[in-house]
Structure to design on (471 residues):
């Protein structure tokens, strides 16, 4: 899905077979999937840890508040990150 | 050089298998020792020994375990091993032919904590698929795929691609769509074990390879977000070697059915002068860090020219040690797939032969299952 076409009401969740976990060796957060590991940066982790039924709009709102960031710019980043993960079949929208 | 930590363990829990695929990467001369005291059977590691391997792997930093073989379902303690892996917080993946997986067993494995199943297929329809497998397996696999879906487990389809099935790539992708798979791996055959013996029958032509690449690229774009397509290149047709294992002793380790710990699953047969440590004599931490087998090709110090001064040396790591050994007789040589290797002629000779033979079909030798041999005194 193109980033710009993701609705504010879309509810992102981890795709089937994907696990979010802390790598105890490095303390970093990782996504685990069949034969694959993605190390997450802080932004990606902040987004993914909220992919639990909340809407994209709610996630952007919370992050904007927490980081005192401009929510329009943040919405672009969140959409880009989720779109990339969705194309790789690591998250899905409900 | 700081010591790397492993990310993934390939647990080859048995070499027994109901299929006879001529491209199997298991060692051609695989043999099983006669039962030793405390042994599971045929010299295979016991349940408790595997649990120890799993705990030691997790402590070393491993995050993923692949249960493979042979056919891992041949071990009745598979569920117990999956449970142990989940307790150690490992991501658990079952790599299987599916033969022997009924509703009860698939639910038991799911309940033990299995994260994902990779189901092998030999082609998209039964006549060719069964001919390749050397067994009537295809229809059963279709049934197993449905059972996996019904249990709610994520499904990957694994196809090994070679000269006899490469022209059916589109249909294989269609099968993955029809079965509702999350992922499909289309892996051009790599020439180790039985596949090395059967190279003349398995190596595709250049025309086939070019067509397949286009089909895979188009399908990947078309199915993005629906099915994750992983296409493994046919490395003989490349001009630079694959970054095998992401470097020797950097990210991966394999434990074979009798407990030998290998930097790579094919190393035991491809590199005969390498001596491997066994989990019954040493712990995994020592083997990973200190053993000669894991250190021989670690880093870049071991590299000869043209690798030593090559700007690509930390990108492809000189390619594959097993391929160097099989094609040049010396595992420390540059992978002969590389255009800068003085041994590239050995690969080109193979390609010339296949591409000038006008699609002549060669017979292959089917994999035979391991035989029992006595333990040396």
């Amino acid at each position: 899905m193109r980033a710009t076409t993701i609705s504010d009401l879309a509810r992102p969740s981890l795709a089937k077979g994907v696990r979010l976990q802390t790598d105890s060796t490095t303390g970093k957060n990782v996504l685990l999937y069949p034969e694959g590991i993605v190390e997450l940066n802080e932004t990606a982790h902040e987004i993914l840890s909220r992919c639990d039924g909340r809407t994209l709009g709610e996630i952007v709102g919370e992050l904007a508040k927490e980081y005192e960031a401009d929510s329009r710019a943040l919405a672009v980043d969140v959409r880009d990150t989720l779109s990339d993960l969705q194309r790789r079949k690591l998250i899905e929208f409900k | 050089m700081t010591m790397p930590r492993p990310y993934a363990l390939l647990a080859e829990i048995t070499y027994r298998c109901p299929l006879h695929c001529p491209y199997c990467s298991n060692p051609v001369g695989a043999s099983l020792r006669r039962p030793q005291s405390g042994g599971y059977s045929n010299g295979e590691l016991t349940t408790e020994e595997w649990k120890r391997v799993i705990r030691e792997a997790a402590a070393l930093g491993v995050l993923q375990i692949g249960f493979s073989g042979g056919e891992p379902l041949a071990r009745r303690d598979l569920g117990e091993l999956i449970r142990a892996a989940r307790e150690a917080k490992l991501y658990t993946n079952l790599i299987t032919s599916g033969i022997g997986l009924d509703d009860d067993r698939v639910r038991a494995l799911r309940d033990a904590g299995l994260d994902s199943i990779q189901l092998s297929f030999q082609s998209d329809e039964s006549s060719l698929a069964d001919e390749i497998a050397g067994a009537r397996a295809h229809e059963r696999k279709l049934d197993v795929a449905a059972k996996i879906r019904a249990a709610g487990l994520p499904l990957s389809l694994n196809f090994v691609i070679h000269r006899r099935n490469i022209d059916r790539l589109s249909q294989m992708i269609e099968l993955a769509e029809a079965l509702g798979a999350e992922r499909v791996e289309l892996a051009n055959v790599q020439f180790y074990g039985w596949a090395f013996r059967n190279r003349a029958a398995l190596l595709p032509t250049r025309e086939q390879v070019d067509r397949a690449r286009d089909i895979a690229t188009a399908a990947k774009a078309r199915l993005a977000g629906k099915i994750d397509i992983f296409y493994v290149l046919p490395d003989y047709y490349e001009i630079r070697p694959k970054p095998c294992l992401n470097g020797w002793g950097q990210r991966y380790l394999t434990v074979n059915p009798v407990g030998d710990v290998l930097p790579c699953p094919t190393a035991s047969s491809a590199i005969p002068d390498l001596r491997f440590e066994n989990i019954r004599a040493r712990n995994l931490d020592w083997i990973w860090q200190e053993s000669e087998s894991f250190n021989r090709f670690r880093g870049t110090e071991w590299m000869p020219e043209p690798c030593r001064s090559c700007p690509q040396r930390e990108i492809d790591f000189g390619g594959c040690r097993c391929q160097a050994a099989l094609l040049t007789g010396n595992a420390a040589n540059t992978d002969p797939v590389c255009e800068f290797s003085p041994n590239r002629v050995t690969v080109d000779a193979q390609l010339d032969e296949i591409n000038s033979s006008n699609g002549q079909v060669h017979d292959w030798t089917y994999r035979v299952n391991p035989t029992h041999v006595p333990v040396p005194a």
Chain B has a mean pLDDT of 93. Chain B touches chain A at residues 5, 7-8, 61, 63-64, 66, 89, 91, 93, 115-116, 118, 152-154, 156, 182-183, 224-228 (CB under 8 Å). The first strand of chain B starts at residue 8 and ends at 12.
